[in-house]
Amino acid sequence: MSDVVRTNLLQFDREGLRKYFTHLGEKPFRADQVMKWIYHQHVSDFSAMTDLGKSLRQKLTESAEITAPRPLFDQQSADGTRKWLLGTDSANAVETVYIPEPNRGTLCVSSQVGCALNCRFCSTGAQGFNRNLSSSEIIGQVWIASKALGNRTHLQRRITNVVMMGMGEPLLNFDNVVRAMNVMRDDLGFGLASKRVTLSTAGMVPMIDRLGEVADVSLAVSLHAADDALRTELVPLNRKYPIEQLLDACARYAARKPRSSITFEYTLIKDVNDHPEQARKLVKLLRRLPAKVNLIPFNPFPGTCYERPPVEAITQFQKILNLAGLVAPVRRTRGSDIDAACGQLRGQVFDRTRRSAMFRKQMHKENADAA
Ligand code: SAH
Predict the structure, then answer these.
(1) Protein residue with its CA nearest to atom 1 in ligand 1
(2) Which of 107, 160, 180, 255 could form a disulfide with 138 if both were Cys (CB 3.0 to 4.6 A apart)?
(3) Residue 138: CB partners within 8 Å, gap ≥ 6?
C-alpha cells in the first residue's frame, strides 16, 4: 500500500477541475475531456480514458483518483423506488433515493451526515449530527446512482431531476452543495436544466440570499405551519428566522428569476397542522408570492409521537388551497416499505450531538407514561 494522498477529482466543478489541470501543467480543455469520462461514461480508471495521452494518463493515475462513497446496501421497493446506503467513512453512511415516475426519475440526495436542526417530525433530526458531506460525497451519490441505473445524459436519461432533500440541511453546507450542484447542471457533468435541480431548506434566511447570488436552482422551503408559534415547535430554526423573514427572503429569491415559483413543503400531521383553518391561514400567507405547495402526508418512524392525518383531512386541506388558486399536489408516498419516504432517511450517523440519546430517552419516557 502506498501512502500517497491522491486528489479526488469528484470534489471539483468544471472551473475547479480546469484549475487543477493547469496546476498539473496541462491545458484546461483536458479537464473537460476527463469530466465527460467521469460523468457521461462513469469511468473511474484513468488508463481507460483513451483520448488522453499516455503520459497524462500516467500522471493522473499517480496523483489523482475518482472515488465516490462506497455502496453498502442497495434496496429496491415494490414500487420501483431504490435506496442506497453509502458509506462515507468508517463510522458513517448516508442514504440516497431514486424515485422513478412515468415521465421522470428523481434522485433525492443527502447533504450532511445526520442533521443538526432537530425538526420534531423528522427521523434524520432524531439521529443527531456528525458532519458535512464533502462535495465529492454529494456528487458521488449522483454518480453511483447514475452508474447503477445506466443513466446516459444524451441517450437514456434515467435521472431527470435531483432534489437536495435527503439527510441534512443543504444550506448549512453551502459551498460543497453549490459545487456539487454546479456539476449536476453542467453539460459536461449530468447536464440537468437549472429548474430540475432543487434545493430544499428548513429556512436558513441569509443563505437563501447567498444562494440566489451564486446558483440558479429551484428553491423549496419546508414551511409546515402558517404561524410562528406552531412553526417554532415543529422547526426550531424558526425561532431564529421567523416566517415573515423567511417569506421575504423567498420573495427576493423569486424576484431574481422571472416566471419561477417557490415550492413550499407542508408535512401534514394529524391534529397538529391539518385543520381547515390552518389551510386558510396558509393561503393568506402565501398570497404575496409566486408559490406552489407540496403537501406531504406525515411518514411515521419508530418513536415518533405524530400521526398521519386521515385521507379526508388531507383532501379537504388540499381543496382549500386549490380553491384559492394554489397548486398543491399531495406527494405520493414512495418506497415506504424500504423506509425511503420523506423524513425516513436515517443512514448511519455517529452522533456527536447526543441528540439521538435524548430522543431515545424521551421516547422511553413517553412509552412509560403511556403504559
Ligand atoms: N433540511 C432540508 C432538506 C430535507 S427535505 C429541509 O428541511 O427542507 C425533506 C423534506 O421532508 C422536508 O420538507 C422535511 O420537512 C420533510 N419531512 C421530514 N420528516 C418528514 C416525515 N416524517 N414525514 C413527511 N415529511 C417529512
Answers:
(1) 169
(2) 180
(3) 109, 110, 111, 176, 177, 180
Band (pLDDT 50/70/90 cuts) for residue 296 is very high
For residue 181 the three cell numbers come to: 450542484
- Residue owning grid cell 483536458: 30
The values of phi and psi at residue 97, to 5°, are -125, 135
Catalytic choice (108, 119, 250, 342): 342
pLDDT 10s digits, 298-326: 999 888 999 999 999 999 999 999 999 99
Supply the DSSP string of 292-313, one letter for each residue. Answer: EEEEEEPPP-TT----PPPHHH
State yes or no: is 307 an active-site residue.
Answer: no
Measure the CA–CA gap between 333 and 337, rounded to whole angstroms. 10
Cell digits for 93?
A: 453512511
Q: Which residue carries 418512524 as its cell?
A: 301
CATH architecture label of 7-65? Orthogonal Bundle (1.10)
pTM of the model: 0.94
Q: Indicate the fold that domain 86-370 takes in CATH.
A: TIM Barrel (3.20.20)
Q: How far apart are CA 342 and CA 97, in angstroms?
A: 10
Res 177 pLDDT > 70: yes
Give the whole-angstrom CA distance, residue 137 versus residue 340: 19
- pLDDT tens digits, residue range 80-99? 999 999 999 988 999 999 99
Nearest to 67 by CA among 123, 125, 118, 12: 12
**Residue 154 identity (one-letter amino acid):** H
Hey, where are the domains in the chain? 7-65, 86-370
> How far, in whole angstroms, is CA 75 from its chain's centroid?
19
Q: Is the dihedral of CA 264, 270, 273, 277 positive or negative?
A: positive
CA of 361 to the centre of ligand 1 (A): 23
Per the CB < 8 A criterion, the answer to whether 131 and 184 are in contact is no
Q: Whose CA is nearest to atom 24 of ligand 1?
A: 298
| Nearest Cα residue to 159 out of 182, 133, 193 | 193
